[in-house]
Amino acid sequence: MRLCAWYLYGEKHRGYALNPVANFHLQNGSVLWRINWMGDTSPRGIAASCGMMVNYRYFLEDTASNSAAYLGTKQIKASEQVLSLVSQFQQNSKL
């Protein structure tokens, strides 16, 4: 889950989220909200994402500012759960 959080939050292409689904939601002003272990146990889900599923949350009053921040300064809004996983990854990673 730590690696997944890093992939979605920290891996970039030209400053934007490397994952195309994450990039889509973040451009539209969402928050990278939650990573669910074994959220998709279908054969496709296991093959594509080791069964993990991600929730993006839209706070309607914040979507415009989140979108502008992402597109302008490439800042990703994420929940405490995701940021905690990212921090754990950074502390333990040898990358």
Count of domain modules? 1
- From the N-terminal CA to the C-terminal CA, the straight-line distance is 16 Å
Rg, rounded, reads 13 Å
Give the overall average pLDDT.
Answer: 96
| Main pleated sheet | 2 strands, antiparallel
In which order are the strands of the major sheet placed? 1-2
Give the strand content: 15-25%
- The best one-word shape is globular
The helix-strand sequence is HEEHEHEHH
> Fraction of residues in helices?
40-55%
| Class based on secondary structure composition and strand pairing | alpha+beta
Oligomeric state as shown: single chain
Number of helices: 5
The stretches of 5 or more residues where confidence is low (pLDDT under 50) are: none
Counting DSSP E segments of at least 2 residues, the number of strands comes to 4
Topology at a glance:
Layout: H1 2-9, E1 12-13, E2 16-17, H2 20-27, E3 31-36, H3 43-49, E4 53-57, H4 63-73, H5 80-92
Antiparallel strand pairs: 1-2, 3-4
Helix pairs in contact: 1-5
